[in-house]
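EI: anyone free to look at a 151-residue chain?
SC: sure, send it
EI:
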Amino acid sequence: MASVKAPLLENAEMFDQEDIDQENKVSNQLLHPYVTLFHVLFRMAALISYLLCGWFSDSFIFSFVFVVLMLSADFWTVKNITGRLLVGLRWWNYVDDKGVSNWIFETKGQSSSNFNYAEKQIFWIALIACPIVWTGFFVIALFGLKFKWMV
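SC: here you go
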């Protein structure tokens, strides 16, 4: 497959100077506490609302829409903010002149000194654990005959 250059992106910097300066900071604290909080917050809000929706509302539609909105906010946050700041990942899609959809994936380099270890751990654990929990909920809904939640 030939290398494809995205129009208007050839001269763009991969990461800001702030991200490069951040490599020199060494700390046991979280460098981005609010970013880390929101990385976990939207996922937890979706899980908690799924678990508790029957207690607060009898409306399946309201509960379903709220869970989908929280998961959508989580996806946007991971794609645009937390992936970039916590582990140095970003991606996007563009359609070239021939109508072909091209995905661009970038990484900032994964040496251990570039990113805060605790933030990396939180990012990857949350990214992997939540789909496992959702799979468990799917199995429970399947055996509990709650077919409306398996959509």
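EI: Strands lie at 89-95, 101-107.
SC: 👍
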